[in-house]
Every structure is written in C-alpha cells, then in structure tokens.
Amino acid sequence: MTKTILKSAAGLLVLASLLVLPRYMQSPYALHMMILLFLSVSQGQSWNILGGYAGQHSVGHAAYFGVGAYTTMMLMHTWQIVPWIGVWAGVGLVVVVALAIGSICFRLRGPYFVLASIAVAEILRLSAINLTTLTNGAEGILATEIPAFKIGERVVTDFLTKVPFYYIGLFLVLLTIAITWLVQHSKLGYYFQAIREDQDAAHSLGIHIALYKNIGLVISAILTSLAGSFYGIYVGFVDPPTVLGLDVSVQIMLICIIGGMGTLWGPVLGSLVLVPLSEALRSNLITEGLVKIGLVSADSRIGIFLKENLSHAHVLLYGILVVLVILFMPDGLMGFVKKLAMRRKREAV
Amino acid sequence: MAVFLQSLISGILIGGVYALIGIGLTLIFGVMRVVNFAHGDIMMVGMYLTYLLFTILGIDPFVSVLISFPLMFLFGGFLQKTFINRVLSAVAQNQILLTIGLGLVMSNTVMLIFTSDYKILTTSYSSSTIQVGGGVSISTPLLISFLITAAITAALGWFLLKTDTGQAIRATSQDRDAAQLMGINVKRMSIIAFGLGSALAGTAGALISPTYYIFPQVGGVFTLKAFVITVLGGMGSVVGATLGGVLIGITESMSAVYISSGWKDVVVFVLFLLVLLFKPSGLMGKSRT
To answer: Which stretches are transmembrane (chain B) (predicted)?
Structure first.
C-alpha cells in the first residue's frame, strides 16, 4: 500500500517538474533534446502496443510514421492547412492504410509477417519517390513556415519557439503511456497477450484473432501517425528515406526491444538510453572528448575523419546494442532491471 | 518483339545472380530455420571485398571470386559460430532482431571505413555488349556472371547430392533431430551451411559489382529481394530459389521496360505479397510451419 502511494507521489513529482521545466531551462538545445526524447518514447510506446503486447513484430512501422508526417506536411505545404487539422487527416488516412495492411499481413505468421510488413512499407516509400506531383518525390517537402493557429483574430499557437513543441511532445508521451496502461489493464490487453503467447490456444478459446490483431494495429498506427506528424512539423522537412525508410522502422522497434517489450516502462527506459547515446555521437561529443584528453589531435587526419564520419555512427551503435541485448539480455533492460531487483530481494531474505 | 526479347534475356541473366543470393538464404533457412536478415549486408561485404581487390591489387572482379568465395565462407562460419549459434533455440523474433542488428553493424562499419559515397567499379568490358542479331544485344559482364553463376550452381548441386557432407547438410535440413540421432554433427553442418550461404551471397556481390553501384546501404535492397526470391520458390528449396531468382529477374526487367524503372521494385513487392497470400508455400515448397 505504502509502495503504491510512494510510486504515485514520485510519478506526480516527475510530471510536475516536466510541466514547469521550460520555464527554468530555456536553452534551445536542452529543449531540443527533451523533444527528441518525447518523440522517441511515443514512437516506442506505439510500437509496444502491437509488438510488445500482441506479439506482432512489425518491421514496417515507418509506413504509419511516414503517412502521418507526409499528410500533415502536404496539407500544410499545398493548402496552408494548420497542422492541428492536418494531423487528424493523417490519422484518418492511417486507419485506412493500417486496415489494408492488416487484412493482408495478419494472415501470415512469424517471419512471413515480418517480411510482409517490410514489403508494404517499402511499397509506400517507393511510391513516395515516384509520385512526384503529389509528394515532390525524392526531394521531399520543406516547410519554411508553420501557419499560426487562429480563432478569429486571436493567435492560439504560433510555433515560433520550441516551447509549444515541448508541450505537444509531453502530451504525446502521456497519451501513449496512458493508452498502453489502459490496454494493459483491460480485457483487450489480456486478449493481446493470449494471442502473443499462443495464437492457436487463444483461437480455440474463442478469441477472434484477426479482429484483435487489427484493433492492436489500428491503435498502434494512429499513435505512430501522431508521432510522425509531430516529427514532420517539428523538423520542417520530410523525404522518403527519413520518414518511410527501413531504418525508421528498425529504430522505432529498437526503442522498445532495448528497453523491454510488453512492459509499460520499457520504451521510456529504451529512449533514456538511446536518445542521449545517439545524440552524443551525432553532435561529435566523442570526437571532442578524444581531442580533449589528447588521444587525437583535432587537425590530424584521424581527427578530421572522426569528426566527419562519427556523426553517422549512431546507427552502428544501435546495431551493436541490439546484438548485445539479444545475446545477453533477451528481455531488454526492463527484464535486466527486474532480474537484479529479484536477486536483491532474494539476498535480503 | 526485339524489345521483348531484349528484356527477357537481360532478365534471365540478372536473374541468375539473384538466384545465387536466394540459394544462399534458402540454404541457411533450410538447415537452421533462421531467417537471415543480414543476407544482403553479407553480399554488400562481398561487393566491397571485390572493390578492394580490384583497386588495390588490380584483380578482375570475376577472377576475385576465387579469393572472395573462401574468405566469405570463413566470415559466414564465424558469424554462425559466435552469434547465430546462441539464438538457435531462442524465439523467432530474437533471431530476426539479432540478424538485423548484425546487418546494421556491417553496413555502418563499412560506412565508417569507406563513407557513404557511391563507388563504381569500371572494368574494360563494363559497358561492352555482344550483338545477337535482330536488334538484340547482350551485356558482356552480365553474360559472364551468368555463366559463372550457372557453374557455381551446378557445383553446389553436385556437392549437395553426391558428397557425404552435402548429404549430411540435406539430412539436417530435413530433420535436425533425426540427423543428430544418426550421428551427424549438426553444429558443424550449421557452420558449413552459414558459411556456404555467405560465400554464395558474397560471390553474387562480386559478380554484380561491375554493373551495379557499390554503397554501404545496398544490402537492404538485396535482403528483401532475396526473401522475395526464396518465398517465391518455397523457403528451403534450392531448386525453387533458382527458379524464383530467374522469375524475379524477368519480372524486374519486364516492368522496367513496360511500366517504368522507378516502379519495378514496387511490382516485385506486390508480386511478393500476392504470392504470400495465394500460394504461401511457394512454387516448390511443401509446408511452412
């Protein structure tokens, strides 16, 4: 009992400090990092609902991310439609796409499902490249300005600073966590887990497999689409590889796998590890560190090489992490933490 | 008619190389039931190996197969022994993720070393063609690589059918437990199968390098293509993979001519989804459990 109270108190404290944070932390870089973290958590959590709870390991989530990002950006670019409305157009479209994908892919299992999910996302990526009149092709869409949201003459949001993005990102995180929690504690979640553990047994108990897989996919796709819209507007640029590429699908999935699939806090933990790590590589912190301790001089050939190329290495790091996690912590960081906690408990007894 | 014949011939020639990639993947799947998502990246490593041998030592890409085949065999054996072996009894998604992770490590390590620039390997015969008559011509490098592919496939067929090791590999892929009870060293067969699969992928990379761009991310495209080929042929079937490779080659070159080159991969993926839906056991496969 006291444990529950302590836990909720800690949660409220974290939430309160996240809400007031932009007041005290005004450095755009720090805000940017927090926004990236929020984006990552909401991506991972969205995948978690389908991949972690229902056990359908889609490697094609870029499809939903990209549809959200592209729809919002295209509406904004072509017709100056405010993102607040464009987002919902993206959601509507993504539901259609998800149901189409679901009706094809859910007839397949295991590796065949994975392959089909990749193929569908690839079809969308190649279409985005080839439908130049609609999507601007390989050049992508650049939004120079986000139209302000006005009611009458009053400006509600202007997106001139990073602060509105911070709060929208935080809202997305809370939304995805709340929905995951609801799923976990409802009949739906138990059905998902039954399907994950043994599809045939679940079927023989009368669970409508295809229906529940599609429900899981639609929830997951809508949330991923919201994250995609958010990404598109925040970065102001979308093109086929950055929102529809296979790398996007893999990265979405990794947040969850490294953190721990099918757990509420896995994607949060995964993001807390992955985002700072990949950002450290991207921003050349490592090269600067090596220069500082005198291992590499900044203007030597190797120093210049590292500076130019190490920024690409965050995907390499993702790869190494995946290999290590699968080999040594098959249940992700959450599983590892739980194991440690269990061991401590046992030792205490 | 000339256009039709032309695209049919180039489809068959490129399909031969695709078949080689597919056979490698299907061999690995057959023996270990592991879907190797790093297959295209292994092929990419083979392409860079060929590129290195060509630029540093001046060895012709087609001759370099003699060096890259054994090297890639060792590389594959190493991957199997250090990584894949540990997840053989794990759940399927962990196997998939591990091979995706290995693929990411390979492509990004190569990117760190060689940067992401496109490399082109130009030989004296890279753009030469042989006129057949009737307005139809055959690209020389594609023809040579097709002949080498055919020779390798024939040698592999002989190896699998006639030698003791080949028979042991086939036995392992039919029933791993029964093979073990019969005294077959399945662990060794797994290493050989992964080595062979990698060597075939690497060889395909070497054969395709005079006519294709070389870049670190090239593997992703070919991993998918390899799957389409093996699923089309029936997972685990070597004959099926050969057929699937040629079929995909023809589909690609036909849709490039009659639809557009930008949409040819879309046609292949749509075909793939249709096969999964309507003939999930593939052309040669029996069951898929």
So the answer is: 12-35, 42-59, 96-116, 136-161, 191-215, 227-250, 262-278
CB of B33 closer than 8 Å to CB of B174 = no
Chain B residues whose beta carbon lies within 8 Å of the beta carbon of residue A323:
83, 98, 101-102, 105
Per the CB < 8 Å rule, is A126 touching B93? no
In this structure, the strands spanning A237-238 and A141-142 are: antiparallel
Q: Which of A318, A320, A326 sits opposite B94 (nearest CB)?
A: A326
Pick the residue from chain A with its C-alpha nearest to B90.
A330
pLDDT in tens, chain B (289 residues): 788 888 888 899 989 889 999 999 988 888 888 889 999 999 999 999 999 999 999 889 899 999 999 999 999 999 999 999 888 887 777 888 899 889 989 998 998 888 778 888 888 777 788 887 777 888 888 888 899 999 998 999 899 889 988 889 888 888 888 888 888 888 888 999 999 999 999 999 999 888 888 998 888 888 888 888 888 887 778 888 888 899 999 998 888 888 888 888 888 888 888 887 777 666 665 544 3
Is B269 within 8 Å of A119 when comparing Cβ atoms? yes
pLDDT tens digit sequence for A162-219: 778 888 899 999 999 999 999 988 888 888 888 888 888 888 888 888 888 888 899 9
Q: Looking at the predicted complex, does its ipTM rise above 0.85? A: no
| Two tokens, residue A148 | 């302000």
Interface test with A, best of B36, B100, B288 (most A CBs within 10 A): B100
pTM of the model: 0.86
Look at phi and psi of residue B143 and say left if phi exceeds 0, alpha if psi is from -120 to 50, else beta.
alpha
| Rounded-to-integer distance, Cα A255 and Cα A276, Å | 12
**Closest partner residue to B108 among A57, A111, A313, by Cβ?**
A313
User: Is B274 an interface residue toward A (CB < 8 Å)?
Assistant: no
Inter-chain contact A323–B105, Cβ cutoff 8 Å?
Answer: yes
Domains and CATH numbers, chain B: 2-278 (1.10.3470)
Q: Which residues of B touch A112 (CB under 8 A)?
A: 231, 276, 280, 288
Query: Distance of CA B181 to CAs A29, B18, B177, B194, Å?
Result: 62, 35, 6, 22
Q: Is A59 left (phi over 0), alpha (psi -120 to 50) or beta?
A: alpha
- Beta-carbon contacts below 8 Å between A and B: 110
Sequence letter at residue A62: A
Q: Is B47 exposed, middle or buried (0-12, 13-18, 19+ CB in 10 A)?
A: buried
B88 close to A (CB below 8 A) = no
For residue A195, the Cα-to-chain-centroid distance in whole angstroms is 23
A9: how many CB neighbours lie within 10 A of its CB? 10
Burial pattern A229-255, b for ≥16 Cβ within 10 A else e, equals bbbbbbeebbbbbbbbbbbbbbbbbbb
Q: Which of B267, B269, B270 to mutate to test the interface with A (most CBs of A within 10 A)?
A: B269
* Identity of the amino acid at B11: G
In single-letter form, the type of residue at position A285 comes to L
- Which structure tokens are listed for B280? 């999930």
Tokens 């309507």, residue located: B278
